[in-house]
Amino acid sequence: MSERQILKGCVALAEGAIAAGYRFYFGYPITPQNDIPEYLSARLPQVGGVFIQAESEVASINMLLGAAAAGARAMTSSSGPGISLMQEGLSYMAGSELPGLVVNITRIGPGLGGIAASQGDYRQATRGGGHGDYHLIVLAPNSVQEMYDLTIKAFYLADKYRNPAMILADAILGQMKEPIFLNPPPLVLPEKPWALTGARGKKAQLIKSLYLADGEMEQHNWHLYEKYRRLEREEVLVETDLQEKMDVLLVSFGSCSRMVQSALDLARSRGIRVGFLRPISLYPFPQQAVREVSREVGKVLVVEMNTGQMWDDVRLSLYPGCRARLLARPGGGIPAPGQILAEIENLVKAGDGIDESVHQA
Amino acid sequence: MALTKVFTRPDSLRDINFHFCPGCHHGTAHRLICEAIDYYGIRERTIGIPGVGCGVFLYNYFDLDVCEAPHGRAPAVATGFKRVLPQNIIFTYQGDGDLGSIGMSEVIHTANRGENITVFFINNSVYGMTGGQMAPTTLLGQRTTTTPYGRDFRTEGYPIRMAEMLAPLEGVAFAARVSLHTPTQVKKARKAVLRALDIQIKNMGFSFVEFLCACPTNWGLSPRQCIEKIDGEMLQSFPLGTYKNRQDS
């Protein structure tokens, strides 16, 4: 086991990418993720890698597309507005079945918004974001350790499913420092017989997303559909902390879940029986886990830093008849553990039955 | 008496009929590029990246690895390829809307980085695949489906001269404009294509060949009238020539 180190989230993520065998970075500066390109511009040349500061996020994602089509593990990183510019390329990558990693260190939007942490990009990340019928694989760390571990995992999943993956973190996770162990798993790079490296001693190959013949594109969509169903069956990542006979289940992801964990400790110290469920893979979303645990508990409090986005996924997954509430703060500020505790206490007092109310933190 | 075959397709060009309209020059450009690839014996390490437009079907005709790119983004995709595979030969094949309009930023910055790739640019002064709309290279006065009264500089600006615009950039090693409308011009175009790939093989930087081409369908002219139009109006707006040819060091 490696030494314990204190690292910033962005740096841990960059080291995770290097541990995953990635050597190609393309990106354009935007706050609050600049620590990633700044760090990698120094680090990548040390390991024989390539760093390009692209002219735009549009160029970055298409450089990533090219590097991925050539068979390399490659990455770009950005924040909200830049990620919006990448949606075209992401749609092409999904359509062409190209793996690659996109890191979104989110800030508050819409528009230029602000640079403080927010979870307002959840919907864009999990629904596809660009045109057409596709998903990204979306992993949401909640610690510096996970910024490292999940980055390695994301590269692995992207290659396994030939689909772009996203790390959805935010300004808090990118900027904060925590103790971390850098324990890279053994590096096994998958064979990529589909990659384009020149038709030397083999038939010429083609990577494309254009299918004009009758029914061809429909068939391609069904093929992608099967891939996403397989992801939903096999790759759900979720953390739970449950008790016997729970009064309330808390559901939260990313940096916000850390505040929720503090509230959970407070609530338990007051004798309230509280459970905790944290989706780590936002797509595929842990529908089954939410359904099963909510059936057991009956009352669910969702806490997130937006005005209710994961809230939609939770409501789609709830056991029918559950009482669910949302405690929302759209970023720029953080729901405090005390506020979350107050909401837990309110929900404990509330009667049974359907309640999908939204409360501002 | 046995007959000797004196004219064949290049090995890199598959024996498939082109889908291009009669009088279109895409087929000639395809052939010239494939001839040059054969000449240098680089087919097995060449990767083609067509843009979006009639040229996207390059993958049906070129017998080599091909990767599609989003509209205008081929130079960025090519950059990704070249950085991963520096020993391979990477070219893009883009139309005027693709390169001179939506992809202007990508081509300028790829050229300015001196990416060691080759860009083949088909300038037929109109959007072909989408049905004849105005391109950045549409001539003044030219009627298109979105300039029904003719392109007017007061409202639509002027035709963009890409070869001249790119040539002064330090990263550009070769930039030329050629035409495919007469046998003499095709011979000159062949030389430019050979030199552009030669530059890349020698790692000398970004190389660019602009081809003036006809689009009979969207110009609403017969192939013969198209040749007259290129020879007259088009050459006036787009002078042929080699605008940059860095010497071998």
Give the CA-based shape of chain B. Answer: globular
**From the coordinates shown, what is the CATH architecture of the largest domain in chain A?**
3-Layer(aba) Sandwich
- Molecular shape of chain A: globular
- The end-to-end distance of chain B, rounded to whole angstroms, is 51 Å
Helical segment count of chain A: 13
Share in helix of chain B: 25-40%
Percent range for β-strand residues of chain A:
15-25%
Count of individual domains of chain A: 2
N-to-C order of helices and strands of chain B: HEHEHEHHEHHEHEHHE
Characterization of this structure:
Chain A has 361 residues and is α/β, with parallel strands linked by helices. Chain A contains 13 helices and 16 strands. In chain A, helix 1 packs parallel to helix 7 (144-161) and helix 11 (287-297) packs across helix 12. Chain A is globular, with a radius of gyration of 21 Å. The model of chain A has no long low-confidence stretch (mean pLDDT 96). Chain B has a single domain (26-244), classed as Rossmann fold (3-Layer(aba) Sandwich), CATH 3.40.50.970. Chain B has helices at residues 26-40, 58-61, 74-84, 96-102, 104-112, 153-156, 162-166, 183-201, 216-219, 223-237; strands at residues 46-50, 65-67, 89-95, 118-123, 172-179, 206-212, 241-245. Chain B has a 7-stranded mixed sheet, sandwiched between helices. Chain B is globular. Chain B starts with 25 loop residues before the first helix and ends with a strand. The mean pLDDT of chain B is 97. Classes of the chains: A alpha/beta (361), B alpha/beta (249). The A-B interface holds A 24, 26, 50, 52, 54-56, 58-60, 62-72, 74, 88-89, 92, 96, 196-201, 204-210 and B 43-47, 49, 56, 59, 62-70, 73, 76-85, 88, 105-106, 108-109, 113.
